[in-house]
Amino acid sequence: MGSTGNGFAGDRAATIRGGTVVDKDVDFANYFCTYGFLYHQKEMLCDRVRMDSYYNAVFDNKHHFDGKTVLDVGTGSGILAIWAGQAGARKVYAVEATKMSEHARKLVKANNLQDVVEVIEGSIEDVTLPEKVDVIISEWMGYFLLRESMFDSVICARDRWLKPTGVMYPSNARMWLAPMRSRLADQKMSDHEGAMGDWFCFLDETKTNYGVDMSVLTKPFSEEQKKYYLQTSLWNNLHPNQVVGTAAIIKEIDCLTVTVNDILNVRASISSSISAEETRLCGFAGWFDVHFRGSKENPAQQEIELTTAPSEDYSTHWGQQVFLLHPPISVSKGDDLNINFSMDRSKQNHRLMEVELSCEIKQTSGKLLLPFRNKFYIE
Fold first, then answer.
1. Where is the Protein arginine N-methyltransferase domain (predicted)?
2. Catalytic residue among 148, 205, 223, 356
């Protein structure tokens, strides 16, 4: 979730730049179809943080759009393309992979921009434009920034169609990680224990009533439930007081220069310090921010930030990605955490992610707690 559908290459299959071969029809069925529904577009259009950030980025920096050519990658409802046109763009190419393009055309015409905004249905890897563009604008961010792998398509568009002097909207992105506390950890552990208790009742009843011993399936069932309840990361909107330590950047991206290979995996070794008094370390929260800065040669007149960090005042449809520990660990103010983080694309689905997270905790007393390593799935 987070951006309008776009991005597969080839006639029947596309070789993703990580070596994963993806069938075009399967990818469309699993991913793009969601973005073809107005209810999903409405959810994103109701995200005030998202909308205000892009609106301000465009209209506070009209010099990037006035009289210029613009490419909107994954236009969805067409809102960004319409804003670019209202900001004075000479021509806007709005590319959308789904039938949402039909709604986008109606909106463009209803806002009297049909002579400026051209909606093109197709994947950005396949379409051909008649000219290079001055600006590429796209809302490509998924959960924890990189889920959905739509940024691949934006990079493809940049390499094919952006002028050497062109700018990217957004221009920069960052991923953050911080220690957190949450009752979700207890809830998910309870849910897991309940599922396993139900399984053992099922075994007894099946053997008693039907004479079949199914206990040989206990191990795979247990692994399945462990992944579902304990290892699958969760979407959540956290309150700032649930963040119990300093946040650290685990990835910085320059949208003008980054390559697909640069984002196939994320590796970071970071440090954090517990800032709350006696509390529980229940896991780690991940979020992102993006910035609209223009380029070094053509900077923004007004830099805009869109952040999905925990806040008292707002929430976004992205929220934060939560990686829970089972069981939680007691920590105190001043304890130091050394964290190793890695994230790779799932081998089964290149739009999903697998995370490995390890941590060493040094208490204020100087005692080292036993290091732990956990695997998580962003699905």
1. 209-362
2. 148
Per-residue confidence (pLDDT) for residue 41, from 0 to 100: 82
Give me 203's structure tokens: 């075994």
Whole-model pTM: value is 0.89
Look at residue 181 and give its three-state secondary structure.
coil
CB 76 within 8 A of CB 100: yes
Sign of CA dihedral 154, 156, 157, 158: positive
Q: What CA–CA distance (Å, rounded) separates 113 from 94?
A: 12
Rounded to whole angstroms, the maximal C-alpha distance in the chain is: 78
Q: What is the pLDDT of residue 286?
A: 97
Please, what is the angle between helix 100-110 and helix 79-86, to 10°? Answer: 30
- Which residue segments constitute the domains of the chain, with CATH numbers given? 13-170 (3.40.50.150), 175-181+234-378 (2.70.160.11), 184-231 (no CATH)
Residues in CB range of 29: below 8 A, 6 or more apart: none
Torsion of CA 315, 53, 352, 268, to 10 degrees: -90
* 148: annotated active-site residue: yes
User: How do residues 1-47 score in pLDDT, each as one tens digit?
Assistant: 344 333 322 333 444 444 556 666 555 545 555 666 777 788 888 99
Q: SS3 letters for 104-137?
A: HHHHHHHCCCCCCEEEEECCCCCCCCCCCEEEEE
| 253-289 per-position pLDDT tens digit | 999 999 999 999 999 999 999 999 999 999 999 999 9
Residue type, 75: T
139 is an active site residue: yes
